[in-house]
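Re-run with default settings, no changes from the original entry. Doing this only to confirm the output is reproducible before filing.
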Amino acid sequence: MNIYDENQCKECHLISVFQCDHHDKNEVFHQIMQPYLTLLYKRCIYKIKDRIAAEDLVQDILIRVYKALPSYRHDDLFKTWLYTITDNVCYTYLKRKYNNNMVAVKTLDNLVVVNESNLNLEIDFNKIIPRLSENEQEIIKLRFYNDLSLDEISHILRITMSACKMRLYRALQSLSLLII
């Protein structure tokens, strides 16, 4: 048995002890999560690009894991399950953070030909964005509010890069028709 198998066996045992309503539940939870704290923090920073918010998100993740751990089944690796929760918390954070309602046209990458009459034009997304599909709204907000790359967006949305490009292209087409 190698070290990885021993650690995984110990982890499974600790999870089982936690699920059995052991009287030292908080201490057992601490032992389970201690090896993952740095990994969770780094993953949050990678996803959201904000160190301060990442600290808060790790706390939210720990709360969610604590609540969900009693129903954890050992079907997948614990680390995979933990990363799924982390990704979902980060994605929810990004959706909330970038749900602003105003953006300058000049940031929308050549959607409108810029001239003197529309140089300072602003789009009221309260009026225009709701007319787009949910997928179109989502990708526009992630790309232009969050300034995420297509690679990051495809990872967040769990779609392929080509699907991400096509979705953005179609969203921009729809948006340009609404603006003009």
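The mean pLDDT is 77. The longest helix spans residues 78-97.
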